[in-house]
């Protein structure tokens, strides 16, 4: 093989190897090294009357207050079932349990979160119901990106990557498809809502 052709072949191989190590956070796109997909288990329906009414209520401030109040109950159910069941199940809401390492305490911190499932990626968003502060779990992930996800009865180690600004609008639209409350949350605050891509570690 001519030296010039051999050099080009090695360069292409090197580029492909480098690309395989780069996480691709653009929705609907996967890195060349496809990871194992996450399980998915949702019950209920996001199109029934109950779901539509619940989504409208959740977009209001009283609705946000109510969801925050039932979060401890939902966390208990999710922890007992490894996120196989959630109190939001009847309205078809996809919920996981995300366990991060506390940025200050160093202890495990667990939070129920709605998610967008896109192949080998789970996306989670730090909406915090439109409050002015970022939720603590987002700061935990920025400090320590390794975490654990409970989903569909399984606990899976994950690595978190902060989604780049240019990819966020498309992903945010997917969250709004789940519930229009996210649009209301974003309108309530001036902060930029952090979105993370979670992949199997």
From TrEMBL:
According to the UniProt record, one GO cellular component term is:
plasma membrane
Q: What would be an example GO MF term here? A: oxidoreductase activity
Pfam families assigned to the protein according to its UniProt record, in alphabetical order: F420H2_quin_red
Gene3D superfamilies annotated for this entry? Electron Transport, Fmn-binding Protein, Chain A
Q: Which InterPro entries match?
A: F420H2_quin_Rdtase, Split_barrel_FMN-bd
Q: Which SUPFAM superfamilies match?
A: FMN-binding split barrel (SSF50475)
Catalyses: oxidized coenzyme F420-(gamma-L-Glu)(n) + a quinol + H(+) = reduced coenzyme F420-(gamma-L-Glu)(n) + a quinone
Going by the entry's taxonomy, the superkingdom of the source organism is recorded as Bacteria
Name the protein family: Belongs to the F420H(2)-dependent quinone reductase family.
- Spell out the PANTHER family in the cross-references: F420H(2)-DEPENDENT QUINONE REDUCTASE RV1261C
Protein name per Swiss-Prot or TrEMBL: Nitroreductase
Q: From which source organism is this entry?
A: Nocardia ninae NBRC 108245
Taxonomic lineage is: Bacteria, Bacillati, Actinomycetota, Actinomycetes, Mycobacteriales
């Amino acid at each position: 093989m001519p030296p010039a052709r051999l050099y080009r072949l090695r360069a292409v191989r090197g580029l492909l190897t480098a690309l395989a190590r780069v996480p691709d956070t653009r929705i609907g796109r996967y890195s060349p090294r496809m990871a194992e997909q996450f399980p998915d288990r949702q019950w209920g329906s996001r199109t029934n009357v109950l779901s539509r009414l619940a989504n409208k209520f959740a977009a209001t401030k009283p609705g946000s207050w109510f969801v925050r109040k039932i979060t401890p109950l939902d966390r208990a159910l999710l922890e007992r079932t490894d996120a196989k069941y959630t109190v939001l199940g009847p309205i078809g809401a996809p919920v996981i349990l995300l366990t991060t390492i506390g940025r200050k305490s160093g202890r495990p911190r667990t939070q129920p979160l709605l998610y967008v499932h896109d192949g080998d990626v789970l996306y989670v968003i730090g909406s915090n119901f439109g409050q002015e502060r970022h939720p603590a779990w987002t700061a935990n992930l920025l400090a320590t990106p390794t975490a654990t996800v409970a989903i569909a009865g399984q606990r899976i180690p994950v690595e978190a990557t902060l989604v780049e600004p240019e990819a966020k609008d498309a992903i945010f639209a997917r969250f709004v498809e789940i519930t229009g409350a996210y649009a209301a949350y974003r309108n309530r605050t001036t902060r930029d809502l952090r979105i993370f891509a979670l992949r199997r570690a």
